[in-house]
Amino acid sequence: MNQELVVISDEQVEILLGDLLEYYGYDFTGYSKASIKRRILRLYGLDKQLSFAEFRYKINNDTAYFKRFVEQITVNVTEMFRDPGFFKTLRDTVLPKLGTYPLIRIWLAGCSTGEEAYSVSIILKELNLLHKSLIYATDINPAVLEKAGQGMFAMSQMKQYSENYIQSGGTKDFSSYYTANYSLAKFSDELKSRIIFSTHNLVSDHSFNEFQLILCRNVLIYFDRDLQHKVLSLFDESLEGLGYLALGSKETLDFSPLARNYKRVPGEKIWRKVS
Amino acid sequence: MNKCDALIIGGSAGSLDVLLKVLPELNPALSFPIIIVVHRKHGADSLLPELLAGRTSLIVKEIDEKEPILAGTIYVAPSDYHTLIEKDRSFSLDCSEKINYSRPAIDATFQTAAEVYRDKLVCLLLSGSNADGVNGLISVKAWGGTTVIQDPQTAQVAYMPQQAANFAKIDYTLAIEAMAEFINLLS
């Protein structure tokens, strides 16, 4: 229990973030400070770094370690059908409305290891819309995208995911979507066939298409208010009229000047672009 | 003791009863915020803030991300997120890995608050069945804050405050009946 009190100062956090921007072009300066500092401290302790100087040197000179650093300071915790009520609204309200379009383009921003992309794909399949949908699932972090592309998740999670699925209005046998392979559940290739996994950095990259639905859940919480506004504008530029924007359960459009162009779907963190 | 700028109360199994007993006795004009982090099941709309609001005339609300932390308000950590304290004395939320099998983790809030409020922070750890909060109290002490536990003998589940007593330096050990007065005197 006796933990060592590893201390990295706020100034040292700024130094690391400055290095990342200067040497690698990754801009984390608009991230919420408490969260990013916690992630850095966690990694520092996890890798038993001997000194700040050594830690910094390694990040700046060892490409493999730099990758690990970016992977570890961004949060990649996700699950299938997280917040089942949200997915129920997608199933019952949002996606049927989009079903009238000849091609449904969906952007899942900050998709991490892909659990939500596969969840959306399952609902689209059950609504008989998958064949005419495209899900662009993006993340800043290439390592998680590689994992997402494999479509394999821990078997130990399946009980929870199956319960979430049922609560979200799913009526099929959830296990019909994957084949069990020792400790892993491999999801069917059909579900993956309409998902495009690709890197995209919400901080620095531009809009790349127009969508009818953008999902970005539990990503904005890691950004400060200014960066949140910037990213919400990016979503606004990328969303067609009458398209939907879905945020995480503790995130909101309320503080954005864009709010007046949107109408909230009652009871959910989903907004429809009305003008 | 130094002036108190924030009181954070952490608890798990058996802590709700304590809160329900203490809240009605609190001075309705507290000069600092109270932040409550208790383990609970992740459900759609939690009734906890509402339940607590029925016991006090202080404002009780569930925390929103980036919300500034104001005196005289009782903030309740939402389920399934860690609540972190920013240097500018606002909240940020984080849904990273569970800590001590818990999200919210009491440690996360205690530790980030320790560095922000330093010697003007008071953290109180209540009844509970795991050791979440203990590392947090060690940090609080290291940054000069005040550590308080519920007297394990009065706890429905003694493990959590007992672990704190074993591993962290504790300034005050309080019976449930003594808590409200202790908190009111922090003002």
TrEMBL record, chain A:
Domain of life: Bacteria
GO biological process: one example: methylation
PANTHER family the record matches: CHEMOTAXIS PROTEIN (PTHR24422:SF8), CHEMOTAXIS PROTEIN METHYLTRANSFERASE (PTHR24422)
Protein name per Swiss-Prot or TrEMBL: Chemotaxis protein methyltransferase CheR
Domain CheR-type methyltransferase, residue spans: 1-253
InterPro entries in UniProt: Bact_Chemotaxis_MeTrfase (IPR050903), CheR_C (IPR022642), CheR_MeTrfase (IPR000780), SAM-dependent_MTases_sf (IPR029063)
EC number(s) given by UniProt: 2.1.1.80
GO MF entries: protein-glutamate O-methyltransferase activity
Top-rank EC class of the record's enzyme: transferase
UniProt keywords, alphabetically: Methyltransferase, Transferase
Pfam entry (one): CheR
TrEMBL record, chain B:
GO biological process: chemotaxis
Protein name: protein-glutamate methylesterase
Alphabetical keyword list: Chemotaxis, Hydrolase
Sequence ranges assigned to domain CheB-type methylesterase in this UniProt record: 1-183
Organism annotation: Pedobacter cryoconitis
Active-site residue numbers: 12, 39, 132
GO molecular function, one term: phosphorelay response regulator activity
Catalytic activity: [protein]-L-glutamate 5-O-methyl ester + H2O = L-glutamyl-[protein] + methanol + H(+)
EC number: 3.1.1.61
Record-linked Pfam families: CheB_methylest
InterPro entries: CheB_C, Sig_transdc_resp-reg_Me-estase
GO CC terms of this entry: cytoplasm
